[in-house]
Each structure stands twice: as C-alpha cells, then as structure tokens.
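Inputs:
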Amino acid sequence: MHLIIAEKNIVAERIAAFLSGKEKVQAVKDGAATHYIFDDTIVMGLRGHVVEVDFIDGYKNWRSADHPPRSLIDADIIKIPTEKKIVGLLQKFSRKATRVTIATDYDTEGELIGKEALELIRAVNTKVVIDRARFSAITREEIIKAISEATPLDFNLASAGESRQIIDLVWGASLTRFLSITAHRGADSILSVGRVQSPTLAMIVDREREIEAFVPTLYWVLTLVTKKDGAELEARHVHGRFTDSAEAKAAYDATKSPLIVTEVITGHKIDRAPAPLDTTALIVGAGRLGISASYAMNRAEDLYMRGFISYPRTDNTTYPKSLKIAEHLKIFSHGAFAGDARYVKEHMRDVPTRGKKETTDHPPIYPTSLAAREDIGDDVSWKLYEFIVRRFFATICIDAEWETMKVNMSASAEPYTITGGRILEAGWRGVYPYSKAEENILPVFTVGETLPLLSKNSEEKETQPPARYTQSRLIQRMEELGLGTKSTRHEVISKLAGRKYIEGNPMKPTIVGRAVTESLEHFAGTITEPTMTKTLEEHMGDIAAGKKPMEAVLSESRKMLAGIFDDLEKNQDAIGHGLMERTREEQIIGPCPVCGKPLQIKRVGSSQFIGCSGYPDCTFNAGLPPATWGNAVKMDEVCEEHKLNHVQLLRKGAPAWKIGCPLCSHIKTNSDAFMLIPGMTAEGIKKLNAAHIYTISELISQGPVPLSQIFGLSRSAAEKYIFDAQGVLGLLKKRTEMKKFISAHVVPRRGRGHSKVSTALISMGVTDIEALAKANPGDLLEAKLSEAEAASLVTDAKNMIDAAKMKEYGVPAITLKKYVNAGLGDPEKFIAVHPAGVSLATGVSVTTICNHQKLVAEKLCRPCPEKISKAAFEEGIAPLREKAGEDVLIPLALAGVYRPAQLAKADAKMLAKVTGIDVKQISELQKYAKKVSE
DNA sequence: GCAAGGTC
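Outputs:
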C-alpha cells in the first residue's frame, strides 16, 4: 500500500483527486482526521505540526529550586504528540505501508513537518521506503510529476527548522520564567519574552518614546488664489515649508501683482498596476476596509475552505505559470463582476504584474471561483472577497496613464506653482477603487499671460509627531524586518494585547509593556532586536546547506543565552524592583479625595474596586462592576474635577466598558440612593460629598453630631436623617435581593437582559421579592415576561417568601424542605392542616409537626391546631393502612380524619368535597372502618 | 503557566 502524507486535509483531498484519475476516491471520516482511499493508495492530511517540542519531565514547576529558569538552557528536549488521533492514524497506516511519500508544503517548515512524520513512521516501521514529493502548485501536472519524481527527505533542511524550534523554546521559556518570577507575577499576568514578540513590542515602545520626545516646530505654507476661465485656482509657493518666520513673512510681503505665467510643462506618467496579493498586502487592504488583521485572516481562511479563494497564507507575489490567466478570467464572465471582467478583457496586459517575491509553497492570493453575494453570507467576507477579485483584475490590467501639468508663475518675484493631472488611460484603475487618485484638470495656460492675484495666504502649521502603528502598518514593518511569518504576524499582535503589553488601535504600549522592554533592552538586548531573527536565519541557511551542523548552532546559541543569564542573575533584585515599581503605576489613578494618598485599582477574587493606598488608616473606596464584566484598567484621560484617571473594563471579545472617572461614577450611582431619603436634595448630596461621605452606609456610620454640623441642622433632625437612611438601606438591600432573584429565575433573551426586567419591575413599583410574591402575574407582562414566566415567577417568589417566614419562625431548614416539597411551605396553609396528614405526607413525626405548628401559629397569632400524640396517631392509622393507600389516607388525614371510628361517623359527602376523593370510595372505606371500630 | 510555527 502506498501512503501519501500531506500537510493539511484539503491538500490530501486534492492530491487524491488528481492521482486517482477515473477511479472513485473513498473519503473516510474518522473524527478529527479524514483520509482518502483509491486503488492501493491512502492519502492523509496532517494538521501542520502534529508534535511539539517541550522539556523533559521535571521542568514543569517554575519555582523549583532544582530547576531554576537558567537550567532550561541545557535541559533535554523531547517531542510530544499534540494531535494524538492523527498520529495514531499515521502509525496505523505506516505499519502496513510498502511506500510512504511525504507531500508536505515545499518550504522549511514543511520539510520539518515531514521529518516529524518520518520519525513517527520509523517508530513503528523500520523498513518501509520513505520519499518526499516537492510541488509548487497543487495542480494535476505538478502533483503527478512530484510524486513520480520523489527524492529523499532533505534532513539538513529539516534540521534548520528544528534548530529554530529549539532556540525559540529555550530562549522564550527560560526568559519568560525568569522575568515572571523576578517580578512576582503568575497565572494570568506572566511576562512573556520571545524572539518575535519582544522585538515587535520594542518597536511599539520605541515609537511611543519618539512621540514623547517629539518637539513640534512651527512652519508656514504660502498660497495664493487666482482665476482662469471663471474657475478659482490655488497655487503653492515653490519653497514649500518655510521654517523661518521672517523668511515666510518676507516672501508673503513680496507676493504681489503682477502674476505672470513663466512656464507650462506637460508630462506623461505611468501609474503601475499593483502586484499580486500576499498575506501582508491582504491585511493592509483589509485594514483600509476597516477590518482587523485577525478577523481578516479568519474570514480569508473561511473563504479558502469554501473554495472561493486560494490559500491565504503566502509570501508569494508572483503567479505560477500554471495559472492560465485568460482562462481564469472567464470564470467571472457572468455574475456580480461580469461588467468588470469585460472591461478587464478589453484592457488586459500581456503578462500579469509580479511583486518582489517568488516562493515555492503557495501561489499569491487570488479568487479561485465565482461567488454571488448570497453564497458568501456575511458582509465582511464579501467585502474581502470583492477586494481579492478586484485585486486579481488589477494585476492583469494594463497600467494607468496620466498626463501631468505643471504651471509655474511668478507673483512679482515670488515663484508659485499649480499642478494638475488628467487620466489618459484608466487601465487597472477602472476596476480597482481602493486607492483613489483624483484627477485635477487645469485650464490651458500660455507663457507670459497675466493672471489676477485674488488673495494670498500664509498658513502657520506645526510639525506632527510620528503616528502610532496601526495593525497593518506594524505587520508591514515586521515583514520588512523579517519578524514572524505570514501565518503568525497577526497572532503576535493579539498575543501582545493578551499579555496587556499594548492597547488600543493604533497601538501604544502599557506601562508593563514598556517596563518589560526596558528591562530586556538593558540586560538581554539580543532578544529585543530583529537581528536575532536575521542571524538565526543565516545559521539556518548554513545548516540547510550542510555548512554547519545543527549542534554547533545550538551550542553557540546556548552559550550566548548563558552569558545573558549571568547578567540577569547578577541584577535580579534591581530588575525585580524596577518591574514591580513600574507595574504598580499601572494601578495608580490619582489622589484619594479623603487623604490625598494614591488611589489604586484593586482586585480581590472577581470583585474589584478603587481603594486608598493609605488603607487601613484611610478607608475610602468606590466599587466597580465585578471582573466578569471585564478587568478594570486605567485610561489616559484624567477627570478635571477629581484629578483621577478614567477607568475602563476590558473583556475579550467585547467592546470596552468606559466607566469614566471612578469617583464621578461613584457619586452618580449613590446619589440615586441618597435621593430616596426624604428631604434629601442635590444641594445636600454636595454637602455630604464635600465631607467625603459618598454612600448611605457612610452617612449612617457618621453619627448625629458630625452630621448635624455638615447640614447645619439640629441633632434630632440629624438623627431622623440617619433613621431614614437606615430605612433606605434596608429597601436597597431588598432591591438587590430581588435583582438576584430575577437573574436566577428569568432566562435572558435578546433585548431582555436581567437588568432590563428588574428595572421594569422596579418602575412598576415591584421593588422587592415580597411585592413580587403578592403581584398579579397579569400585571407583570409589561416587564417583557410571558404569561407562563410571570406566573411561575410569582409562584417562585411566594415560595421563597413563605420559606423565609417559616425559617424566621423557627422551622429548621431540613424539615422545612420536606414541608415545601409536600406543598405546605405557606405558613397559613401549614397551620390549617391536621398534623396527622402532614406526617403522612412528609414522613416527619407528628410530635415534631405539632411543635412546628405551635411555633408558626403563635407568630401568626392564630389558635394552635389540634395536638396529637405519636401513639394515638399510630394506633389510629394502622388499621386504615390495611385497606387504603397513601393517595387516599393523606387527604383524609390532612382534613383531620385518621381514626376508623372518626371515619365511620363522618358525613361521606362532606368528606368527599373537602378531600376530593370519590364518594363511593369513601363509603366503601366507611363500611370497613365501622367494622374495625366496633 | 513559557516560544514560534504549522493548521481548524
């Protein structure tokens, strides 16, 4: 059997289709892995790397004394399967195979993935022939040729990849552990370090430093307005920016009539069509469409999987020869782009454009099939697809051509100029609206003609600091510097954001991000420089070419890292203090309104709040929504009034919740509560806030004397305030309880969250659970509840109130549960029934029940129900049990009938009515009871 | 709990 291994499932599927010819391919789906069978061949796809490098056992614990971060430098490394199912399948087929062909992507990483597969195969089959097929396009001809001309695996090339894996792991893991431990950070706040992420972060930090160090300077731009053929035109002074104000002033003053045309130059300009799309260009284009890098890649992956575009992870900007352009264009001759395709056909260039790079693994990104708007689904995917289609069109269209015009003139002696342009041939611009170039058609001027000088202007401007990086600009820069790959660049940005090293778009570093970069620059500069990647790539080239063994490169790298650790360990205390000091700043938001010491964002478990660093001497604090709504993070904006930084809550996948100034928000939330106190005014709240009383509980704990001073009131008036405030506090507690109750009992739906329901109920006057229990379900429909929901909500509320009352009266929780289960949770109902029945229904002894009924009756000021002894109950019920089941005995006993004699004497009709039991059945039972009682 | 690189 011939086993063929591809890097991914989709390639396996296509290889099978090409090789099978007319033979039918059987696709076998086995959970995570699919394989394809025809003749005596099996084609299976891997999932990229199916194994991962890691340290041998014993290095798991970061804080182990035996294995400190430094020891990772020389720790043994093993490969661990990460895709167990695929590895299992691969080894199962390998045992039976007579030939294995590795057909992974044609690049270094593909060779390494191939070697990983080879090692897995060799572990179970030492003899089978293993060869390697190399193809640069997934077409029938290429694939068939590559398989028939398969060569041995290139172990040197695979080793080059392996050295990268090991160096990245060793440097990344050891430095990450060192820094995190040194700064006392753990769990979700580790400080990560890596060959790609650290230089990328350093670029963002550098840019921020440039912005901070930037000193704006003034400059002046001179323009004048003239008129020709009825149209006003603006001309610029040819000097451009004047940096000297005196010079600008002199030129301005010298700008006078007559204004005479001195020169008219017309030219011709070629406006080249863009190159084919690679991943970076796709991300840049998506960025212009307002799509983030990660989301663009996510949608592109989806378009690829559905067959609309070619593989989206590529560095290639040259179409393969196998792509027949004219043929391919025909795909679009109908559908949404039919008109554009016709235009392209009429404006086609001989050979498509090509970019700087030509690689062997994948073609540039181009549309592989026609899709209609409704095939695609979401708007973003469609925008992206349209962009890819139009870019493809642009790359096969002729260049655009412009006629350029330049009119030089002289105002007295000052030289001015007007430039314009006219499209002679639109070419690719006719189908590619993403980079606009405006035409500016000028009237015809002649040399020597005099123009009117309508006005002149000297505009004062300021030089601007460099701009922060946008995602796409950063990805372009990373590509220029060789950082990361087409598949990973956008992920690096997400990683930096996830570590809270950077924030916002355009991106800026956080204090932590800056502190980490600065520590690394100081003590482990190598890892913050793109040069590390450059050097690594050179070494990888040497290994691939067989000029250097992998071991030599690894030991050199390890030696270098050990040198860095010498430095790091010597300065460990200083690094730790520095990092902790700096990262503490991230939490400080300004002065405490009470004592002036720094206020901090604090977190205990999932609850977070603003607290004073002077605690416990100063107890000022202001609550924030719990961390489930997002982590509280300091912002740059500062509140004018309180001099506190604004705060926002950040949660993955959700827009930021901007709290604003936490003190303003604290005051606002609590003023609603203050206003519930009778007689309270906005003026009164201001007085309270001025005395640093922000909440009702703070008011209550004031004591009447200080409060009377604050308000300028008598002591007794202040006492009344406190009393009323206590009432409001109780009310608010009940409100909170009800909100909790609602969120536990109402299923949230679109447009109807828990808080919406609660707010609606409160505005209807249903402010606590007790009110809810007494409410008429029909009245609750306004709160967006269905009839069934309203009814069950009221029942639940009533049950809860009942249970709370019974508990308060002294019924223990376990027994109470039994009463509730029997439907006797309502105190009124509980004392209205006979203990014998309760006992039968719940299994609780009659004595206990009598005690409980007495407790409840006393609290409700009702007469106590009949008390019976256990013996009397047992004696009475025993004979009846012979003849009747529980379904009959319980209702009878609840009505007080539990002895034969009693039953015999009772009025059958009445009893039937009270218990709901059939009269005939009662009469039957009575006959028996008579007999027994005689 | 760590990197970067594949792929879903």
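Remarks. Residues 715-745 of chain A form the longest helix (31 residues). The first strand of chain A starts at residue 2 and ends at 6.
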